[in-house]
Amino acid sequence: MALDAVCLAAVLEELRAAVQGGKIDKIYQPARDEVVMAVRGSAGNVRLLFSAGPSRPRVQLTALSRENPGTPPMFCMLLRKHLTGARILEITQPELERMAIFRLEALDELGDRVERRLVLECIGRSANLVLLDGAGRVIDCIRRVEGDLAAGKRQVLPGLFYRPPEPRFGVPPLLERELRFRGEAGDLEAPLRALYADVQSGQFTPYMLLREGRPADFSFLPILQYGPDSELRQYDSFGALLDDFYETRERQERARQKGQDLIRSVTSARGRTARKLENQRRELARALDREQLRQYGDLITSSLHTMTRGMGVLRTVNYYDPEGAEAEIKLDPLITPQQNAAKYYKDYNKAKTAEQMLAVQIEKGEGELDYLNSVLELITLAEGERDLQEIRQELTGTGYLRRPSKAKGREKAVTGKPMEFRSSAGLRITVGKNNSQNDRLTTKMAFKSDIWLHTQKIHGSHVILWLEGGEADARSLTEAAVLAAYFSQAREGKRVPVDYTPVKYVKKPAGARPGMVVYTTYQTAYVDPDGELVKRLRVK
Questions:
Q1: What band does 50 get if pLDDT is binned at 50, 70 and 90?
Q2: How does 506-520 read in b/e, with b if 16+ C-beta sit within 10 Å?
Q3: For an engineered disulfide with 387, which of 66, 76, 155, 382 has Cβ 3.0 to 4.6 Å away?
Q4: Domain limits for position 295
Q5: Is 386 inside a domain boundary?
Q6: pTM reported for the whole predicted model
Q7: Residues 44, 125: one domain?
């Protein structure tokens, strides 16, 4: 859901109490359409997030840490130049519009106090973050808009006077349905303005709406229209609500954006492997049907006395058929009957050898396909560039990515850290985010007595429950199994099978792909993935 105008009003009320009058200390741009500012305000040191992403435009206080690029983007450098040390004087919103305007007092190059404005337009695909000077000219924006003067479409470009978007007052669909459900009739503008006034006076409570246990929407009032088919979760602040609502999808989206090259390479390799496997399976099916080739050779041999060179077809009684039906055998007219028989025997022996070779190749290909599917799944767990670089190293080492010729022998190995959790009983639980981490966890880091967990025949992370000389309690085992289910392809499933066993029973075969192991003497637990449990146990 996008942030509607009334919810935005509630968020801004929260921000006024926390950052209005505060000073901007640091500015970061962790993603192309996200800016984070560290602000010293009346509520202490807080992080202020501006997002101009088309699917999630908003401004909020955030408690989540985000990995920043090694080199700040140009827009980030521009904001640092103009706004570092600036004081937030006022936060306003045009009535019932999805816009937030931050009026700031900054210092220019000469040390004089100047006014700046930062405008966030939370308008879906047109979302933007625009920095204005004191005269209202655009200094720059996160997304430049060329516009079309002939068609009357506005431009948002450096040097031009800023023109706000056309007013788009409208009743948000969720609120419209809720108001009608509660008995409001006719024109909804009046009740909506009353709600807007309530929000501005501080009469709001952040609620998240969950459907089938997953975040579906949020609002500033309890949503009752779905009845018992939904769950309402109340929050102390919109900042906490929005962090929870967007965290998972934004982490996955950032990983997709930063890992597009990896996803393309792995998807392409997976497609090639799948096509090759399909061809090999067809060849194997033909090889398994080779008995007819030997029979044709026998039938030609037994009919040599009736045959002459140049024949294209042999029609003879098929003594292999219980009913003695006639067989029609194609011949090569350019060779002798004896050579035709030898050719069928040769094709039979080739098919016999091909069956053995194809069986080996198909097993190898299935292993490759399984590995590539596991890499695609684990790319979604990447939490930053370091994790993605570790996957790149893995794919380079396995031959799926080329090592740049200039970098040969000079590249530095990157080693990321697995995710860490604490069970309710205080036991440490670690989860690998890629196959390299999975290998290190299982084969190098864990003790033989620790517990290894993995979804049964489903791609996912290796999970280690560290016993540290003690024993595993039932609750810790269950929580570790839930983590294994959550960080797997079965995240959206129910009653996911998770195998668990002491690490001493887990072995990595010689020559196996990264992350691939075999294990024996295991038990299986059936659990439901639980995102709330994951958040509660995660060690930040």
A1: very high
A2: beeeeeebbbbbebe
A3: 382
A4: 265-376
A5: no
A6: 0.61
A7: yes
